[in-house]
Each structure stands twice: as C-alpha cells, then as structure tokens.
Amino acid sequence: xxxxxxxxxxxxxxxxxxxxxxxxxxxxxxxxxxxxxxxxxxxxxxxxxxxxxxxxxxxxxxxxxxxxxxxxxxxxxxxxxxxxxxxxxxxxxxxxxxxxxxxxxxxxxxxxxxxxxxxxxxxxxxxxxxxxxxxxxxxxxxxxxxxxxxxxxxxxxxxxxxxxxxxxxxxxxxxxxxxxxxxxxxxxxxxxxxxxxxxxxxxxxxxxxxxxxxxxxxxxxxxxxxxxxxxxxxxxxxxxxxxxxxxxxxxxxxxxxxxxxxxxxxxxxxxxxxxxxxxxxxxxxxxxxxxxxxxxxxxxxxxxxxxxxxxxxxxxxxxxxxxxxxxxxxxxxxxxxxxxxxxxxxxxxxxxxxxxxxxxxxxxxxxxxxxxxxxxxxxxxxxxxxxxxxxxxxxxxxxxxxxxxxxxxxxxxxxxxxxxxxxxxxxxxxxxxxxxxxxxxxxxxxxxxxxxxxxxxxxxxxxxxxxxxxxxxxxxxxxxxxxxxxxxxxxxxxxxxxxxxxxxxxxxxxxxxxxxxxxxxxxxxxxxxxxxxxxxxxxxxxxxxxxxxxxxxxxxxxxxxxxxxxxxxxxxxxxxxxxxxxxxxxxx
Length: 588
Known about the structure:
Its EC number is 2.4.1.15. The chain is of the alpha/beta class. It has helices at residues 12-41, 73-83, 115-127, 140-143, 168-187, 198-218, 236-243, 260-263, 269-276, 287-300, 341-352, 373-386, 408-428, 445-454, 469-477, 508-519, 523-539, 542-568, and strands spanning 89-92, 99-103, 106-110, 130-134, 149-152, 159-164, 225-229, 248-252, 281-284, 304-306, 311-314, 317-323, 359-366, 394-401, 436-439, 457-460, 484-488, 501-503. The protein folds into two domains: 73-327 and 554-560, Glycogen Phosphorylase B (Rossmann fold); 333-539, Glycogen Phosphorylase B (Rossmann fold, 3-Layer(aba) Sandwich), CATH 3.40.50. Helix content is 43%, strand content 15%.
C-alpha cells in the first residue's frame, strides 16, 4: 500500500514562487487603492490652482507645528501684522468685559467673573479691536462718549468698548426668554424642558438686528473680521453678511450643540441654522459638537456637505465648521497679584473658619442647573456615609454666583441647593464644623484664584458643558503643582485634561470613591498629574485658540482675493477651473 503522505509534499521552489506572487498581488492592490483614493480627492478633469490646498495636517484649525509655538499676545499681534495687515477685529457678545455700576455717589468698575470674558478680553487687548456688548451696568451710560464708546481697560486703554442699549422688554424676551429659557436648556442635556414663545423669538430677532446695525456702524471698511460669540446671536452672522458681504465672520458657539433629533424641538430651527451659516467659520469646542451641527444642517436644510473638509455649502456660500478648544490666558494675570499658596491657604481657612486638619474641596461656578452642584453634594454625602472617619476632616466650599434668578428653574435650583446643604450640615455637622459652606455671592477673578490656590480638590461636575474653564483656571493657579482636579466626563475640558480624575456626575457612589481617591492621593502623584495638565493649558492657551481662528480667517481672505483675481482674469485653459466655480472648498 503506497504512503499517502507523499502526495502532500510541495517543492520549496513552488512555495517560493507562490509567496512571491501573493506579495506582488498585495502590492498591486495597495497601489491601486492609493491611486483611486488620490483621484477621488480631486474630481476628474480638475487640477488645483497653485497654493490652494493646505497640507493635510492643517485641516480643521489644527497645525502640526502649532504646539511648537509659544502663544502669547505678541504672537497674535505678529499674526495680525503679517497675515491680516490693517484688518479691523470686532468682537460681539452679550456680556461686556467691564461693567460700570453706581455705588452711592461714585461709579464702581466691575470685571465679571465670566469664562467668555476671561478668554476674549486678552485677545481684544492684543488686537486693539472693538468689543460690542449690551450695556447693563447702572452707570454704563454715564461713562460713554456721544457714540456710546468707552476706552478700556481704564488703567491702560487698549481697545474700544461699544455699548448697545436694550429696554427691559428686549432683555426679558431676547436674553431671559429665547436665549436662556429656550436655547440654553435645548443645548444642554440637563433634563430641563426648553420653553419657546413666539414673542420671545420676535424680540430675539429684533435684538440681533440691532446688534447687526451696530456692527455695520462700527466697521471701518467692507472687510472687517467679526468674532460673534455664543447662542445669543444665532441670527447675527446672516444679518451681517447681508450688509457686509465681504466680511470675514467667525461665530463661536460656547455651549454644546445637541444632536439633530433634540435640535428639532426648536420651532425656528431652520432660521437658526440659516443664520449661523452666514458665518465664514462656525466654531465649537469639540469635534463631537461640530458633527452634531453638521448633522442638523444635513437634516433640515437643502445643502451640500463636504464631511472630509468639514465644510457646508448653502445658498452659494461656504461655511467651515471647525473645533477650537477654548482656553485661558497663560500665565494668568491674577497670579501676579496673589501671595504664595501657603498664605492663600491660611487666608481662606481663616475667612471660612476651617481647622488645619480639614481638607478643602471647592466648587466655583454660576448657580446653574447644568453645573452639577447638587450632584457633588450627593458625592460628599456618599463619602461621609460610607467612610464616617472623614466627618470633621473634609469640607466643600461652594462658590455659586447668582445667575438668572428671575427664571423659575434657577429659583428652584437655589432653593434645592440651600435645602441640600442644610440637610448635610445637620446630619454631619458639629460645633465649629460644617461639611458644606454655601456662598452665593459674586467673586472677582482675583478672589477666585485665591480660592483655587487654597484648595486640596477642585470639583468640576458639569452635567453637560461646552468646555468649562474653571478646570483650566484651577490648573493654571497651582504653580505649586499640588491639588487634585475631579472633572466631569461631560465637560469639554475632559478631552484635554486626561490626568484629572474623570467622573460621571450622575453616579454619586463612584464619584464619592473618586473624591476619596483625591483626598488620599500622594503629593508625588499630585505633582505628576498637575505637571502634565499645566503643560497642556500652557501650550493650548487662549492665544492659541484665537490665533487658530485668525489664521483660518487669513487663509479665507487670501482665497477670496485669489477668487477675485481668477474671476477678473481672461478665460483659463480648459484644464484649469476657477475656485469660484468649484463645488468643494479647499480644506483649511
């Protein structure tokens, strides 16, 4: 009987040839795929004009070399001088960077503790621009000139603040009504039902038109760079575009953008999207919010979307949709006015009557239902319930600046916070000790930074947030490289500050465990985590945020100049297509 194994023997030469053939075919397939991919990037018969495409790594406002640049006010001034010579920069926001209030017979200057203001004020100073905002201070009208302008900051005037006046009815309908009872809860997943009234919408439209008139009046030429801020002005970009078609309009949406199904709740969803698409660039904190915006446009407007380039073509105009993570000034100016950490700790402990052996946790924000204040109270409750040895050894100082107090949802939150704090203090408190110190007062930025420097733990437990600059401010304040940041996974800052203790604020038990970890973390681990977070905030500071937008604005303006040159030139050869005729926008 023959040996059947002999039929399985294959000569080595055949195996070698077979392997060579497989490798050759694989290389051919890969080469074909690469060639097809390249061809698909450029339509058949089209060739890109010289310099019209930027490198792949510069897409979506992100440059591979940006992290190597030391971003500062000088960097911004250099960008303006080199890339945007003679460009006028106009900032538009609801909140003003300086408020003048009556105090007896005197006028008191107030700098609001606002993330938006702290981010934009250094930028406007560096650009020597014009800031247009609602003048809500009781003495605001007393200090402006005949054109409603005042030069700021008072000690070193470097830009112009132009105030817009609103009646009580306008403020009620536009700000408290449509913006904060409608758009705010719509965009934040905090389970508060948005309220939409036709009268509020009509007032919102009218106020946006009033601000558009002011922008046009302040523009020195046909091509200003207008930085529109936040959800108060969703209609403003389109209104400016109608009056100043050559303006470069960058709209930054500081809060989350919901998914398209949630956004469909808004009765005027199409008009809001059309208004925002009057922008040259629409910016968000994260790519996730960019994606939600693009999906909303795709669902509700007849438009052309180039997802690869994050660009939307609507009504013959193109808007880029980019992520620009906002940040803070580095180094913070407030640190130069404060003593060292040891003295800050002593002053804060004396002020609030804290014993030396009590570990201090802090929360700092507006009194808002999106910030998760009640949830951090629950986390402390869980800790003290399961680890009673910490009773008398840990306290939470909650700074909650009053906000929108006339709205029912905010009144309810205020009452709930007070009740919850009182309940915990009754159950766990003792003579000379309260686990929760609730302070519902406005604090200056200098006071806030002193509290940061005195804290052992900073709790940022937002239920939903665009970025949350408190997290970055706390990191910037800790030049001693100590302290622990406990950070919500639903805050945009959690995408950058990975060395924080990332928590789910809806899970009180797990957040209580994270709080225990923070309180017992070694100094060396604190130092390692804080060093890395400080590097992130230093490199990705507010000047980089603004510089990225201004560089994108410069690229757009140059492309417009090329478009005009191509449009005015004699007919191009058949294989060259004008940028004006292209259906796709070159990626930034």
